[in-house]
């Protein structure tokens, strides 16, 4: 089947966002929990496959492996069905821009999804990453698998929680969700599961490989680092990262994807008709 054209993708995004915002609150929370867990699964497998690869030998390839593995998260979100904050930052606002939702409905949806994502990510971080031993801890025996995964996690969370400035987190989050939302946009263009996965893969792999900040992924990485005992990392550092990652992700989604494509394909021109691209 042929892929949708850009104006058709925009229309599909509006329908999807409207449907998500009109769901009952409990379904949004459950779907948010699942999406938070799915992104955490992506983060967990990304740590696992990139652990023990010495940068002196492998250079920057571990980040490529990590990015390729992390795509599992958004594939599960979009194919299995759930509610991810960063994707909803595109879909729900573009529906509001089209007059299908109120600002209150946008805020309600993003708040519920945020809470659900956080609970799902924390569940995987504590029970399935650290308590299972898949991610080791500060006391893991040197050379053991747990020690390798702990060292990889520690390097990630120390960079994100202790070394990035507020401005860096914000800008990395803008770039992250610009790419994430393009992955969502491309998935809407496709009619087959295989095509959707291919559309998701490259933008997600790219943002992870470049070290950008995804607020829901960081809801997994940073708490997992705290649970594993990474020295110097606390909840204050974690909240600081989440706040600026959230703001940057919101700008990346709303300004660079939702507003841009609404303007190109959905906004009425001065004559009262659709934008020129929408009439092609």
Describe the structure.
The chain is mainly alpha-helical and 280 residues long. 76% of the residues lie in helices and 0% in strands. The chain has one domain (6-268): Glycerol uptake facilitator protein, CATH 1.20.1080. The chain has eleven helices and no strands. Helix 1 (6-21) packs across helix 5. The protein is globular. The chain starts with 5 loop residues before the first helix and ends in a 15-residue tail after the last helix.
Tally of strands: 0
Number of helices: 11
Helix content: over 70%
Outline type:
globular
- The computed structural class is mainly alpha
The CATH architecture name reads Up-down Bundle
What is the fold named in CATH at topology level? Glycerol uptake facilitator protein
Low-confidence parts, pLDDT < 50 over ≥5 residues? 276-280
Mean pLDDT: 94
Beta-strand share of residues: under 5%
CATH homolog superfamily: Glycerol uptake facilitator protein
User: Strand-and-helix sequence, N→C?
Assistant: HHHHHHHHHHH
- CA-CA gap between termini: 20 Å
Global Rg:
19 Å
CATH level-1 class: Mainly Alpha
Strand count, sense and barrel status of the largest sheet are: none
Number of domains: 1
């Amino acid at each position: 089947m042929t892929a949708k054209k850009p104006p058709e993708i925009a229309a599909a995004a509006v329908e999807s966002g409207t449907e998500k915002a009109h769901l009952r609150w409990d379904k949004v929370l459950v779907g948010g929990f699942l999406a938070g867990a799915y992104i955490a699964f992506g983060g967990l497998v990304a740590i696992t496959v990139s652990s023990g690869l010495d940068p002196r030998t492998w250079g920057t390839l571990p980040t490529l492996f990590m990015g390729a593995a992390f795509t599992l998260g958004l594939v599960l979100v979009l194919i299995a069905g759930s509610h991810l904050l960063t994707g909803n930052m595109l879909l729900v606002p573009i529906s509001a821009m089209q007059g299908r939702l109120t600002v209150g409905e946008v805020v309600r949806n993003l708040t519920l999804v945020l809470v659900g994502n956080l609970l799902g990510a924390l569940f995987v971080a504590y029970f399935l990453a650290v308590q299972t031993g898949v991610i080791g801890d500060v006391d893991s025996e040197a050379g053991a698998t747990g020690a390798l995964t702990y060292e990889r996690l520690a390097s990630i969370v120390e960079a994100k929680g202790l070394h990035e400035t507020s401005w860096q987190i914000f800008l990395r989050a803008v770039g992250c969700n610009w790419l994430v939302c393009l992955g969502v946009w491309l998935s809407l263009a496709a009619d087959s599961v295989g095509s959707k996965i291919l559309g998701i893969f490259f933008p997600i792999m790219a943002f992870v490989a470049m070290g950008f900040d995804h607020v829901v992924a960081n809801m997994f990485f940073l708490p997992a680092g705290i649970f594993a005992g990474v020295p110097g990392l606390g909840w204050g550092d974690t909240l600081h990262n989440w706040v600026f990652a959230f703001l940057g992700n919101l700008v990346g989604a709303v300004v660079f994807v939702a507003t841009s494509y609404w303007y190109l394909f959905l906004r009425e021109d001065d004559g009262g008709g659709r934008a020129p691209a929408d009439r092609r």
